[in-house]
Specification:
It is a single chain. The protein is mainly alpha-helical. It is built from six helices and no strands. The chain has helices spanning 2-36, 38-56, 60-80, 85-119, 123-143, 148-181. The model has no long low-confidence stretch (mean pLDDT 79).
Length: 182
């Protein structure tokens, strides 16, 4: 009797195992077929190259365009193959990393322009450099790719710097006229 029960359990277990193996083989064939598609291959190449350029470039426009290209291609692939969890993980990681990298790129650009403004000889040149960055911050706010609170903080500090520069110019002009009257 014990032998019969053992045989039934063994037979039942092997059926489950064979069924699980068949399912695994089916998924492997499906994965291999998807990865063998030239369209998937070329899209993944473009996505990975875009991510690499996005991470390495210092040009903010290039970073933004490559980020958007990688995001768009990856979302298109996920629409066709929604069961691919590895691509879903890549998309989530890219979205998290994207804001941080774009924000760091914009912060570096702001610091560079503020440094140029500090070196500039005339007040109008200083204000021009700062206004350029205010325009970039406005574009960044409209794109929706950046943290709104961070943009507001940066914008407030740049506007304060512009106002202080203009105030300095006005005080300097007032002092010149004040001494002329004596």
């Amino acid at each position: 009797m014990l032998i019969v029960i053992g045989f039934v359990v063994y037979r039942f277990a092997t059926r489950k195992q064979r069924k699980a193996n068949k399912e695994l083989q089916k998924r492997k064939r499906q994965w291999a077929a998807e990865n063998a598609l030239p369209e998937v291959d070329s899209n993944m190449r473009v996505i990975l190259e875009s991510i690499d350029l996005f991470r390495k470039t210092k040009n903010q426009e290039t970073a933004r365009s490559r980020y958007n290209l990688a995001l768009e291609r990856l979302e298109n692939l996920l629409q066709r193959f929604p069961h691919r969890s590895d691509w879903q993980d890549l998309l989530e990681g890219l979205q998290q990393e994207g804001r941080a990298v774009l924000q760091a790129s914009l912060a570096a650009s702001i610091a560079k322009q503020v440094e140029k403004a500090g070196i500039a000889k005339t007040v109008s040149t200083k204000i021009t450099y700062l206004d350029r960055e205010l325009m970039e911050l406005s574009e960044a706010r409209n794109s929706g790719e950046y943290d709104e609170e961070w943009i507001n903080t940066q914008r407030a500090s740049l506007e304060e710097l512009v106002h202080n520069t203009e105030l300095g110019k006005l005080l300097e002009t007032a002092e010149r006229y004040e001494f002329k009257e004596d």
